[in-house]
Design goal:
With about 200 residues, the chain is of the alpha+beta class. The protein has 2 domains: about 50 residues; about 130 residues, no CATH class. Strands 1-2-3-4-5 form a 5-stranded antiparallel beta sheet. Strand 1 and strand 2 form a beta hairpin. The model has no long low-confidence stretch (mean pLDDT about 85).
């Protein structure tokens, strides 16, 4: 049977398509394998850099990316990264989120063993540029107002924006956004307090 007559057979096109699909999937598998380690290393570096932003320098001598505990918060699982010095847990780093004006606002926070915030940063949000984006540290220093705060300082009823009789500033025309961040941070501190024994283990 010559090639021309084979082309006229009904099975020719599906076979050819199958061969190309196998070649394409093989190429994708090879590319994924070749770049997988580099991608994982880049993601680990990004995470380590983000965690280091909220953790004061010299506070940990361990690799906190490898010292974790997963805890439940409602239906969600929160990964706690534990910063240790000389084997003792000095701080917990974790992400929390609350609904803002345009979507969830994801917050990364570090809390010391006494329940005080060491640092807070917004990792992800969809708030209005020029209004709600002042929660980003590169746009405004507002987020640094959480440094050193705890559930007792300010008192629970003062954990709010000034419009709600709290101590934190709001933004003109964008009260919902800072209100969500305040709620997220307070919720994070409450979560830490509720799970302190598990985190410190």
């Amino acid at each position: 049977m010559n090639f021309e007559s084979f082309r006229e057979k009904i099975a020719y096109q599906p076979i050819l398509l199958g061969v190309f699909a196998l070649l394409a999937s093989g190429a994708l598998a090879w590319a994924s394998s070749a770049t997988g380690d580099a991608i994982a290393a880049a993601e680990a570096k990004d995470l380590r850099d983000s965690l280091a932003e909220v953790l004061p320098q010299g506070m940990a001598d361990n690799d906190f990316l490898k010292d974790t505990v997963d805890l439940k918060k409602g239906e969600k699982t929160i990964t706690i990264y534990r910063a240790r010095k000389d084997g003792v847990v000095k701080a917990a780093l974790f992400k929390v989120a609350e609904r803002g004006y345009a979507g969830d606002i994801q917050v990364l926070m570090a809390v010391d063993s006494e329940g005080k915030t060491l640092g807070v940063r917004v990792l992800k949000h969809a708030e209005t540029p020029g209004l709600g984006d002042k929660i980003e540290v590169k746009k405004d220093k507002w987020i640094k107002d959480f440094d050193g705060k705890s559930l007792g300082d300010p008192t629970p009823e003062k954990w709010g924006v000034k419009k709600d009789s709290g101590v934190f500033d709001q933004f003109a025309g964008a009260t919902i956004t800072p209100r969500a961040v305040v709620k997220a941070v307070k919720g994070g501190l409450e979560f830490f307090a509720a799970h302190k024994a598990e985190i410190s283990g």
